[in-house]
Design goal:
This protein has 428 residues and is mainly beta. Helix content is 8%, strand content 36%. The protein has three helices and 30 strands. It has helices at 4-20, 22-25, 29-42; strands spanning 48-50, 59-61, 120-123, 131-134, 139-142, 150-152, 158-164, 170-175, 199-205, 208-213, 217-218, 232-234, 240-246, 252-258, 266-272, 279-283, 286-294, 299-307, 310-316, 322-326, 329-334, 347-352, 356-360, 373-376, 382-385, 388-391, 400-401, 407-411, 417-421, 424-427. The strands form eight sheets. Strands 11, 12, 13, 14 and 15 form a five-stranded antiparallel sheet that branches. α1 packs across α3. It is globular, with a radius of gyration of 35 Å.
Length: 428
């Protein structure tokens, strides 16, 4: 590929070769013009003629010969072909978020026809009736709390995450190993390989679906065969947010936010993080992200608040690998939390801007080996302690039973805990 000024010079030189060198290579249009002009100049009489006459002699000056000068060609810049812009999503802004629906749906839970191992569950942050579950390849959505299921948003790559926006549009995040193969279901443009994308987000509204690449967010470095960093799809808002690794940089995180269903993205740098776990949520139209980070000398948490006006970052001198948001409050499980109880080792604390950490009392255990304290994200976050679980807030809610050995995965807007027992979905 020649530089632009070299390409322009070559074009100009090619024009003159056509104009002046057409005789030797087949006469071109410029060559015919040059030959015609040569013929005109050869037939022109001498410029001065003298006629005999009584003295003194009269000198008659003939009009000057006609000379045609060809104008120099204007420089022609090489044509620049802009990459095709992604086609707009087949649906637009639906306006402000409706009021949340948190009534507990009635009816028994029906197992989704997955035909494979369920690896994830996500409930809508704004409606207790909307639930998604997925295998490595397929996503199933329920609009009635689990009484029926539909398979949606089939696409390239492994399923990473799923959620809903506040209007109920289904969102699915996939690991797109080759982003050049990602094609919008509405006929959108192919995604260029140089945009740094290795994840794609699908959006479904009614029966209409569209797929978009998420530039700047990756799960792996170029030479990695397996994902290196986790990525999160943050639902519940008017906009879509994807948080995860940035480009091919080690230890860098980014939040990509789209206000138009993935047709365009804006990015917020989340700084250094250890790639273990991120917590993120929409609080009205504010995105909150908590990033744990560590290096060989220090560690801590970074709380990033993103609005339409920009982003604000707050450093917290505390490290925690378990984090959940409850509204605008961050809850963390940490070894240094002042709420540490007995021999459990880790305690539960809540962080509020300007107030710092406040302990959240955790019931003491009489067991010789106290159960691990596990935080589960969701519209109503919970803390699981062995065979019971509690909603998380300024204090823990009443204890509810949870089957020993079952795997907790997500909560819904009604406060129910979803998980897996013997390979099947359960809810309590």
């Amino acid at each position: 590929m020649l530089r632009p000024h070299v390409e322009g010079a070559r074009r100009r030189r090619g024009w003159w070769l056509l104009a002046c060198g057409g005789v030797g290579t087949g006469v071109g249009l410029g060559g015919l013009v040059a030959l015609a002009l040569t013929g005109v100049r050869a037939a022109t009489p001498p410029a001065v003629a003298v006629t005999a006459a009584p003295p003194p002699a009269t000198v008659v000056v003939a009009p000057p010969a006609l000379v045609v000068v060809m104008p120099a060609p204007a420089p022609v810049a090489p044509a620049m072909v802009a990459p095709p812009a992604p086609a707009p999503a087949p649906f637009g802004d639906l306006g402000p978020c409706p009021a949340p629906h948190q009534a507990r749906p009635r009816g028994r839970l029906v197992q989704p026809p997955v035909g494979d191992v369920v690896v994830g569950v996500a409930a809508a942050p704004t409606d207790s009736r909307w639930v998604a579950t997925w295998t490595a390849d397929h996503v199933f959505v329920s609009r009635d709390g689990g009484a029926s299921w539909d398979r949606v948003l089939d696409g390239p790559g492994r399923v990473v995450d799923a959620s809903f926006d506040c209007h109920g549009r289904v969102l699915v995040l996939r690991d797109v190993v080759d982003p050049t193969g990602l094609l919008g279901a509405d006929g959108g443009a192919r995604v260029g390989a140089g945009d740094g994308a290795s994840v794609g987000v699908g959006v479904r509204h009614g029966a209409r679906e569209v797929w978009r690449a998420v530039p700047g967010v990756t799960l792996r470095r170029p030479d990695d065969e397996q994902p290196r960093y986790p990525a999160r799809l943050v639902g519940g808002g008017r906009a879509i947010a994807v948080v995860g690794g940035r480009g091919d940089e080690d230890g860098e995180a980014v939040a990509a936010v789209s206000d138009d269903a993935g047709a365009s993205w804006r990015h917020v740098d989340l700084g250094w993080y250890d790639g273990v776990r991120l917590a993120a949520t929409w609080d009205d139209e504010t995105l909150r992200v908590a990033v744990p980070w560590t290096d060989c000398m220090s560690e801590g948490l970074r709380l990033v608040t993103v609005t339409a006006r920009g982003a604000r970052s707050e450093e917290i001198a505390e490290y925690a690998s378990q984090l959940v948001f409850e509204g605008g409050t961050l809850h963390a499980v940490s070894w240094e939390c002042p709420a540490t109880t007995g021999d459990r080792g880790e305690g539960l604390c809540a962080w509020r801007h300007g107030r710092g950490w406040r302990p959240v009392a955790v019931p003491a255990s009489t067991a010789d080996d106290p159960p691990e304290l596990v935080l589960i994200e969701g519209p109503v976050p919970v803390a699981v302690l062995g065979e019971r679980f509690h909603t998380v807030g300024s204090r823990l809610g009443r204890a509810r039973a949870w089957p020993l050995g079952a795997v907790p995965l997500a909560t819904d807007r009604a406060g129910r805990l979803w998980g897996l027992e013997d390979g099947e979905l359960i809810r309590r």
